[in-house]
Amino acid sequence: MATTLYDKIWDLHRVEDRGEGVALIYIDRHLVHEVTSPQAFDGLRAAGRGVHSIDSILAVPDHNVPTKDRDLPNPDEMSAAQLAALDANAKEFGLNYIPMDDRRQGIVHVIGPEQGFTLPGVTLVCGDSHTSTHGAFGALAFGIGTSEVEHVLATQTLLLKKAANMRVTVTGTLPAGCTAKDVALAIIGKIGTNGGTGHVIEYAGPVMEALSMEGRMTVCNMAIEAGARAGLVAPDDKTFDYLNGRPMSPKGEAWDKAVAFWRGLKSDAGAVFDREVTVDGSEIVPLVTWGTSPEDVVPVTGAVPTLASFEDENKRDAAEKALAYMGLSEGQPMTDVKVDRVFIGSCTNSRIEDLRAAAAVIKGRKVAGHVIEAIVVPGSGLVKEQAEAEGLDRVFTDAGFQWRDPGCSMCLGMNPDKAGPGERVASTSNRNFVGRQGPGARTHLVSPAMAAAAGIAGHFVDVRKF
Ligand SMILES: CC(C)[C@H](C(=O)O)[C@@H](O)C(=O)O
Ligand code: SF4
After folding, report:
1. Which annotated residues bind [4Fe-4S] cluster (predicted)?
2. How far is the CA of 107 from the centre of ligand 1 (A)?
C-alpha cells in the first residue's frame, strides 16, 4: 500500500501498538532547554532514575539568556534560576551541553540542524512547541510537555496517538520580494490556526522544493501555528548538502549508508492524505499580520479588515478585540501603520539567510528617527560569526540597528528584551498573541526583509517597491 512520509517514520519507530491508533513510539533525539526541563530532572531525581540514552540529548539555554551584557548578573531572578538549573542538571546527568558562553550557543531550533543533530527520518522531541522546525529535514519532530520530557529522558519512548495525514502543496514560483515567511503566513491565512489540528502536515510542491533549508525551516516552524502536530518536508539533495560535514552528522561509510536510506524517505506516489490543500505560490505577496493571531494576515498593500467582512460572529468579536488591543481602525491601510520597534530574530527567522535578506534592504540606509529600538538577534553564535565574516553586522550597526548575542530575545517576554505597553513591533517571530513581546505590546509578524524595510521607513512598506 502506498504510504506517506509520516506513516513511514511512524512505522519505523513503533515499539508496540496499544490499540485505537495509540502506540509506544521510540524517540531518537531530544533537545533540552532551560524552561521546560528543570521539573523533569527534579522528577528523575525524586524517582531515583537516570537518563536512558545520554547520546540522544543535546541541551542549550536560549529563552532566558540576555542578548547583551551577559557577563553581568541576570537581572531576572526566575531566569537566573532556570539557567542555573540547566547548568547543574547538565553537570549532574552528564548531558551533551552547549552552555551560555559557548560560541555554538543559540536557539535550540537553530542549533539542532546547525550541529547535524537533526537528521532525516528520526523522531525528535523538545519541550517546546516550535520543535516542528526540524521537520524541514524530514524528521518527525514535535513539541512535548514537561512531564513528557521526563518520560523521554527516563524511557526514550512516548505513548502517542497517530495524527491524520495532511498535505499542503505550494505550486508555482514565489515572486521576487516574497520569502518563506510569506509562504508560512499565506498558508495560515488560508487554513487558519486550526487548519492543521489533529494532522501532521507534509509541505510539498515546487515552491517548497525551491526553498533553501533555512526557508523550509521557517515554513515548518510555523506548522504549529496552523494547529498541526508537526510539519514535514521530504529530504532531498539540498537536505543532504546542508547536513554533510556538520559536527554531529554521520561520517564516512555511515554517511553514505544514511544518505542511501534517506533517499527513500518520501511519500509514495498515490499515497492518500486525509486532507489536501493547495496554495498558489505565484500569488503570494509580502504579508503582515494586523491582529493577535497568526491567521490575521493581510497583504502589505491591503488594509486592516472591516468588522463587517467577518461572517462568523465569534471571529468578528475576536477581530473587534484584536483591533482595540492593536490600536488599529477598520480599513486603515497597512502602509499607514507606524512601527516603534523592529525585532529581527527568533527560531522562525534568525538564520544566516534571514540576516542576509534584512541586510540587503538595510544597506546604506538609516533606521527612522522615531523608532525606539531596532534589534537584530542571530539565532546562534555560529550564525553570528558567519554574519560578521560577511560584514552584515556593520550594515546593521551603520543603519542604527543593534547587533545582539543569540537567544529567543524579543520573540517572547522571558528575558530583558521586551516591548512596552502600546508599542508596535515589526517582528520576524511567529506569535503575535496578546502580551507576547511584553505586557500591552503590539506584534506584527513579517519577513526579515519586510521588518528591515519597516524599520527604515518607520511604517510598513511594500519591500518589492522599496
Ligand atoms: C517556553 C516554551 C515552552 C514556549 C513553547 O513551547 O513554544 C516558547 O518557546 C514559545 O515560543 O512560546
Ligand atoms: S525563538 Fe520564540 S518561538 Fe522560538 S523557541 Fe524561542 S521563544 Fe519559542
Report:
1. 347, 408, 411
2. 11
